[in-house]
């Protein structure tokens, strides 16, 4: 579910009335000076993006909805002190009911349950879920809810939280691309079930994830949640080196794009990208082409014909010409809707989380990504990437050039909306 219809109309209306409030994009100038194996890379990521990368973490990959929902619900039912949950998509259906029931069961047991859902992204939620959770003691808030008589809410309508965060007892964290909707059920083994990945996290980096949740919770409620129930001493027995960083449009931050560009500039061997909504701007396209000129292999997997927003696919394809001509390999996933969001650099550096490669993630949404510097974790993600690639169709430059005229026109017209996609 994306802000392409109602939000676009509202944004255009606002622009006509009061002028667009989007800031002018920052055109970063980043030179390729070191690769991801150089200690300077991790230091740069910590200093420029923050917080620092920290060791001692364990990260488990959850493939598709069945694994993800089972693990998340199990963690929720095990909670003894606190549950902190933030999501963009929370829709009606079986899974939505199961999560509402789980939150309520724990709230009745005395656990402090905080639920933050995006007002627009979760517009399809059954209002009875919210009533149920509130009646049993959960604190539930809608992020940037729209109120026609409140001028402030008009200015926020296009600024959404796209983060997917669950933290249990301050010790167990989850993030990735999975939303709370039946579309994610199953194992991407049915045409209407989405392919996605999510991640179970333990270790010191969970406190950073908790801090990102607190960012939007405080903004929405004014309440500061603190103490050992939220930030306990963390175990340090894992091996992964990781950081969680946030990007927020209201703060004028473009951290997501800066992270992407720094990572691409540090690639010396290969770049593997998966993006549910791949609409790169000129700066990102230039960075990928520069990587090709350094002889870096670039592979990108995007959704095929099965996509929830066809205008995004059309706008994406409009940007492929120079990429394909430079030797970038683009693959369209065939079996189902493809919702993964991942970047793997030189078999070592992995960025996963909520961010796509588009203007919404770079400049409009609140996002959160987990960055991991670990060869073993990267190897697991590469294995999944190769499995996804086997289920994808490669698009050649020749095929792109000779696509039908009607498609070319549709691509071009859709690309004119790229500031909103």
How many strands in all?
Answer: 15
Q: Specify Rg, calculated over alpha carbons.
A: 21 Å
For the record, what is the CATH homologous superfamily label? Endonuclease Chain A
What is the number of independent domains?
1
Short structural description:
The protein has helices spanning 6-18, 39-48, 64-78, 94-108, 127-135, 151-156, 205-221, 255-265, 282-293, 310-318, 320-326, 359-364, 375-390, 397-401, 405-415, and strands at residues 54-63, 82-87, 112-118, 139-143, 165-168, 172-176, 197-202, 240-247, 270-275, 297-303, 329-333, 341-345, 349-353, 367-373, 392-395. With 421 residues, it is α+β, with helices and mostly antiparallel strands.
Give the tags.
421 residues; alpha+beta; Endonuclease, Chain A; 15-stranded mixed β-sheet; 15 helices; 15 strands; 21% strand; globular; disordered N terminus
């Amino acid at each position: 579910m994306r802000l392409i219809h109602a939000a676009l109309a509202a944004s255009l209306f606002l622009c006509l009335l009061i002028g667009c409030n989007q800031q002018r994009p920052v055109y970063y100038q980043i030179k390729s000076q070191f690769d991801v194996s150089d200690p300077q890379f991790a230091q740069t990521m910590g200093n420029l993006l923050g917080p620092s990368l920290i060791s001692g973490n364990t990260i488990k990959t959850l493939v598709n909805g069945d694994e993800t929902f089972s693990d998340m619900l199990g963690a929720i039912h095990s909670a003894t002190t606190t549950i902190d949950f933030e999501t963009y998509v929370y829709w009606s259906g079986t899974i939505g009911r199961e999560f509402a029931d789980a939150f309520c069961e724990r709230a009745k047991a005395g656990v402090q349950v905080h639920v933050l859902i995006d007002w627009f992204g979760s517009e399809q939620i059954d209002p009875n879920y919210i009533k149920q959770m509130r009646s049993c003691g959960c604190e539930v808030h809608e992020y940037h809810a729209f109120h026609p008589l409140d001028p402030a809410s008009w200015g926020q309508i296009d600024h959404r939280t796209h983060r997917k965060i669950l933290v249990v007892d301050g010790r167990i964290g989850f993030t990735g691309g999975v939303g709370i909707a039946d579309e994610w059920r199953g194992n991407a083994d049915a045409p209407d079930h989405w392919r996605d990945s999510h991640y179970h996290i333990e270790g010191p980096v969970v406190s950073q994830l908790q801090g990102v949740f607190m960012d939007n919770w405080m903004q929405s409620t004014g309440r500061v949640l603190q103490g050992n129930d939220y930030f306990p001493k963390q175990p340090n027995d894992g091996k992964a080196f990781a950081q969680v960083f946030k990007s927020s449009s209201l703060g004028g931050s473009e951290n997501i794009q800066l992270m992407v560009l720094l990572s691409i500039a540090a690639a010396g061997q290969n770049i593997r990208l998966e993006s549910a909504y791949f609409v790169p701007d000129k700066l990102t396209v230039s960075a990928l082409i520069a990587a090709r000129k350094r002889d870096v292999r670039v592979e990108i997997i995007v959704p095929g014909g099965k996509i929830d927003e066809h205008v995004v696919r059309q706008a994406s394809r409009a940007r492929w010409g120079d990429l394909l001509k430079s030797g970038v390999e683009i693959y369209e996933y065939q079996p189902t809707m493809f919702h993964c969001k991942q970047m793997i650099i030189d078999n070592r550096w992995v960025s996963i989380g909520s961010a796509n490669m588009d203007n919404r993630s770079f400049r409009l949404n609140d996002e959160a990504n987990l960055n991991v510097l670990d060869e073993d974790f990267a190897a697991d993600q590469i294995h999944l990437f190769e499995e996804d690639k086997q289920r994808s169709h490669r698009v050649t430059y020749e095929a792109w050039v000779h696509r039908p005229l009607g498609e070319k026109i549709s691509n071009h017209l859709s690309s004119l909306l790229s500031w909103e996609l």
